[in-house]
Design goal:
The protein is mostly helical. The protein has one domain (about 15-470): Amino acid/polyamine transporter I (Up-down Bundle). The chain contains 15 helices and no strands. The longest helix is centred in the last third of the chain and has 41 residues, at about 435-475. The chain is globular, with a radius of gyration of 22 Å. The chain starts with 14 loop residues before the first helix and ends with a helix.
């Protein structure tokens, strides 16, 4: 049942705003160097990831968001399908995976800053932690001032920190190619299809799939969108086209220009710009480009800080969390959840001290983040299928074509893609030093078990407290 106490938000977001939020949240320039490492095969894997994951996620998000346009996103959808408990578990996975993801996007930002100052700082954990926490708490402060402040900041960061640098890579890469400069990669047709028997190739597929995670993120702002039944399908379609094309061309250009053995996953973006600018004697532009790359990463962080916390706030208002987490400040921002999130992320940074390599820590957090997110996506795809049968006559402004077969097929493909990604994330890439394999596996499994148990424990405690309170009220009435 819809919570009547929730104040209806103002309709602030247009198709452009929703597109900027989605592209800014899903698109990430930091993923390009790791994707470029797979050379020509990245085209094959990008298209496969788009078909197996991005397309199902986009179509299902559009149907669910336009059918249930109230605020809450994944929580509302899964709740309508399977009840409050599973709705809370789904939004918990969406929220908690971000807690593990924040250090990865921020470590990239810190490494980019280090590259501009002194590349050796990229392995200085004290420097990384200082920059990460400063950026994280600064962005949290912006979101504490509400959606208007957050969306304006997000739009600026997406345009100047993501789209502009990406177009610059594509433009300079095209100039490099047509100028006849040396290439480090062959563009022969037979090199595009990889050896699928190589486990590392499956890691490439899952890596690109995780690059497309988050298409549902803007749907949490459904209550703040202008004409959501029209806005969301358009925004998601535009976002998908932008994401797929820019990822393929940008990563391919990095692989063409830089020797694969020299690409560094943390500051590979700065390497490609340095290669371009050195060739054209434009070294003085590097600090400016570096600044905008960092701005793009902070913008992506900004989108993820506010969206899952708003969904979790809706779940809190529905009785899934203690009462203090259901309160918003005067800007309609879930301030207590934002502050709790900040404290957890601050404590989480200590994990950098447990793993001997920054790259190894980077991969561990990326893998754990992906696995928790895939568990949420399984619930989302399953909810979409079930809701089509549970409410067959409900008006759906956007409906996946093909009747029941269409939703089963699209949802089924999404579930398969999510499960494959979950399993493959247990295989560490060859080039990522993660220390002891046994310790790596134990940390990963322990993290999944703990993060899965916590929402069940919290929901169980709240349920017991509710029953005791109801029983006490009944006894007082007697």
């Amino acid at each position: 049942m819809e919570n009547k106490s929730v104040t209806k938000p103002k309709r602030l977001l247009s198709v452009f705003s929703l597109t900027m939020i989605t592209v800014g949240a899903v698109g990430s320039i930091r993923n390009l160097p790791s994707i470029a490492l797979f050379g020509n095969s990245l085209i094959f894997f990008a298209l496969m990831a788009a078909i197996l994951f991005l397309l199902p996620c986009t179509l299902i998000s559009a149907e669910l968001a336009t059918t249930w346009p109230e605020q809450g996103g994944i929580y509302v959808w899964v709740k309508h399908a399977f009840g409050k408990r599973f709705g809370f578990i789904a939004v918990w996975f969406q929220w908690i995976e971000n807690v593990f993801w924040y250090p990865t996007i921020l470590s990239f930002s810190a490494s980019t800053l280090a590259y501009l100052i002194s590349p050796s700082l990229a392995n200085n954990k004290l420097f990384l932690i200082t920059v990460i926490l400063s950026a994280f708490w600064g962005t949290t402060a912006i979101n504490l001032r509400g959606m208007r402040s957050s969306s304006l900041f997000s739009g600026f960061c997406t345009i100047f920190g993501l789209i502009l640098p990406t177009l610059l890579i594509i433009g300079l890469g095209a100039l490099w190619y047509f100028s006849g400069k040396p290439m480090n990669l062959s563009l022969r047709n037979e090199t595009f299809v990889p050896n699928l028997h190589d486990p590392q190739m499956w890691i490439a597929l899952t890596g690109i799939i995780t690059s497309f995670c988050g298409m549902e993120i803007a749907t949490v702002h459904a209550g703040e969108a202008k004409t959501p039944h029209k806005s969301y399908p358009r925004a998601l379609l535009i976002s998908s086209l932008i994401l797929v094309t820019t990822l393929i061309f940008s990563a391919l250009i990095i692989a063409l220009v830089l020797p694969l053995k020299d690409i560094n996953i943390l500051f590979g973006i700065m390497q490609i710009f340095q290669a371009f600018l050195a060739d054209y004697n434009l070294h003085w532009i590097m600090p400016i480009i570096g600044f905008f790359v960092i701005v793009g990463c902070i913008g992506s962080l900004n989108n993820w800080i506010i969206a899952p916390t708003k969904s979790l706030s809706i779940a809190a208002k529905d009785g899934n969390l203690p009462e203090p987490f259901a309160h918003d400040n005067r800007f309609n921002a879930p301030h207590n959840i934002l502050l709790m999130q900040g404290i957890i992320v601050t404590l989480l940074m200590l994990i950098f001290l447990l793993i001997p390599s920054v790259n190894g820590c980077y991969w561990l957090m990326t893998a754990l983040t992906a696995q928790l997110y895939m568990m949420m996506y399984v619930l989302m795809f399953a909810a979409a299928i079930y809701l089509r049968f549970k409410h067959p006559s409900l008006q759906r402004p956007f409906r996946i074509p093909g009747k029941n077969f269409g939703i089963i097929f699209i949802g089924g493909v999404g579930i398969i893609g999510a499960i494959v990604t979950f399993v493959v994330c247990f295989i560490p890439p060859d080039d990522y030093p993660i220390g002891s394999i046994i310790r790596y596996g134990l940390i990963q499994v322990s993290g999944i078990i703990l993060m899965s148990f916590l929402p069940l424990f919290i929901h169980g405690v709240k349920k017991i407290h509710h029953h005791r309170k109801a029983k006490k009220i009944a006894q007082n009435l007697v």
